[in-house]
């Protein structure tokens, strides 16, 4: 995940960056900070699809946060924008640029963490995997994928509604999906942590009933991944 924090007061960029690093400590997250809307837009206009999430102060000197967001929306309609403001009455201006949420200053860690949880849920909900089946192209939502299973030169994709077999290696397909929701408990499987019903040190039971072996050397890693998933995404 790539995150931008844009605020003309360094105390807030430092504070938010610190909270983000604490929250995403075990994940692949890049945080970039900017001191003005002008500085951020110079970077953003060149790379409009670079960021997944933008924290934007509404009341900055020079170009303000809402005006910055208008420029953002000319290039990218999907990126999530979180407005930061000391005056709640300014929040209404953010609806025209489809702001995901508003956080009042001073930033409270508990409110920021709750927002991050909702953001992760939103990001995972919108991700899809494109596969080919015959002459059809099918988009599978990440949240519907229960597990991937290697079958020689093919991969079985088990979803909540159906199953698909595609000609691809598990390693190659596993590299196409990302995020804290997926984990490989065994060399032949990649599972969706949100679909885990229960587990012990030997196997994982999925909500669809399949029981998948858990490698002995993956027990500790799986437990950490499961706890991280629950903390970030909720169960």
Notes on the protein architecture:
- Helix content is 31%, strand content 32%.
- The strands form four sheets. Strands 2-1-3-4-5 form a five-stranded parallel β-sheet, with helices on both faces. A five-stranded antiparallel β-sheet has the order 10-9-8-12-11. A three-stranded antiparallel β-sheet has the order 13-14-15, with no helix packed on it.
- It folds into two domains: 2-125, Rossmann fold (3-Layer(aba) Sandwich), CATH 3.40.50; 128-233, Beta Barrel (OB fold (Dihydrolipoamide Acetyltransferase, E2P)), CATH 2.40.50.
- The protein is built from six helices and 15 strands.
- It has 235 residues and is an alpha/beta fold.
Average pLDDT: 89
Global morphology: elongated
Total beta strands: 15
Amino- and carboxy-terminal Cα gap: 21 Å
Low-confidence runs (pLDDT<50, min 5 residues)? none
Named CATH topology of the largest domain: Rossmann fold
Helix content: 25-40%
What is the CATH C-level name of the largest domain? Alpha Beta
Radius of gyration: 20 Å
Widest β-sheet, arrangement of strands: 2-1-3-4-5
CATH architecture of the largest domain: 3-Layer(aba) Sandwich
Instruction: Decide which structural class fits the backbone.
Output: alpha/beta
Number of helices: 6
Number of structurally distinct domains: 2
